Amino acid sequence: MRAIVYQGRGTVALQDVAPPQVEQPGDALVRVELAGICGTDLHVIAGDLAGIRPGAIIGHEFVGEVIAVGAAVTRFKVGNRVMSSDFTACGHCRWCDRGDHWECHERAFFGTGTSFGPALHGAQAEIVRVPNADTTLGLLPKGCSDEAAILLGDNLATGWAAVERGALLPGEIIAVIGGGSVGQLASLSAQAAGAGAVVVIEPSETRRAFARANGSLATSPSEARSLIDSLTDGEGADLVVEAVGAAVTLTGAFDLVRKRGRIISVGAHATESWPFPLAKSFANELTLGFAIGDSIRLRPRLLSLITTGVLDPTVVVDRRVGFADAVQAYADLKAQRILKAVIDPRI
């Protein structure tokens, strides 16, 4: 079968590889009908994640059709169209019982090598093996497009997790650092949750224009504090979401938040350490938290918002390609010429 394969730092390529097989009773095989290219994938191919090795199939966002199931799979059968979380979880440990699926000891993150658990080939392929399928997969309902399901699996779940973890209250002012797909979806999530105003902070004018067209205020990093001050009488944002995954942008969040405010980072961080502004955080009673999107937990709520028309995450998808153009799509995403690309293996 064909797949997008990590070649080494900075390089991916389309290759023919052996198709996966059912290995465990809880496995399902899914014929991929649409796969996403995510900002996390850019971290992967840049070599930021130490667990990736040449030969790994990339990608963790997908929808498709079940073509085989293991003997222990009870929720799905051959022919079902399904969506997926970007990582697997067992569904029955204490972490899963609490809805904290990311902390499951059986977690494996598609397409990221051993960075976040056992190595598991990714979904930018014609077929993907899904361990713990009964927990990891969900049926694709009417009213939810393939593109929306792709985004619910990671980017939308991450954006919503930022708002949820940040305990946003109706009417509060939120600043989102980063206008990529996660940042834009965090903005849409905050609007759906009742934010008084959302300010997207982004150096790219194209991405700022996108944010404005989709209900946010938008500003460059150098003018962010001034705009936030005008909205808050100089106090600062109630909640700041860092959606880049860089130490410099996380540091910058502390200059935008009000006293007793909250900072939530959902960017994919690879830096091992970071100088924490301890004295300022203590004096201003700041809260700093991190969140990872858990679509297994959030799937029912987000599907309801999507199918009722409250939230349309597909606005961020601006490139749909076949395998032949996938490598170029990676380059265009890295250069910020596009916001979100999806791959249709059937093209």
Automatic annotation (TrEMBL):
InterPro entries: ADH-like_C (IPR013149), ADH-like_N (IPR013154), ADH_Zn_CS (IPR002328), ER (IPR020843), GroES-like_sf (IPR011032), NAD(P)-bd_dom_sf (IPR036291). Gene3D superfamilies: Medium-chain alcohol dehydrogenases, catalytic domain, NAD(P)-binding Rossmann-like Domain. Its cofactor is Zn(2+). Residues 8-343 form the Enoyl reductase (ER) domain. It comes from the Bacteria. The keyword Zinc applies. The keyword Cell membrane does not apply. Pfam families: ADH_N, ADH_zinc_N. Keywords: Metal-binding, Oxidoreductase, Zinc. Belongs to the zinc-containing alcohol dehydrogenase family. This is Alcohol dehydrogenase catalytic domain-containing protein. It comes from Bradyrhizobium brasilense. The lineage of its organism: Bacteria, Pseudomonadati, Pseudomonadota, Alphaproteobacteria, Hyphomicrobiales.
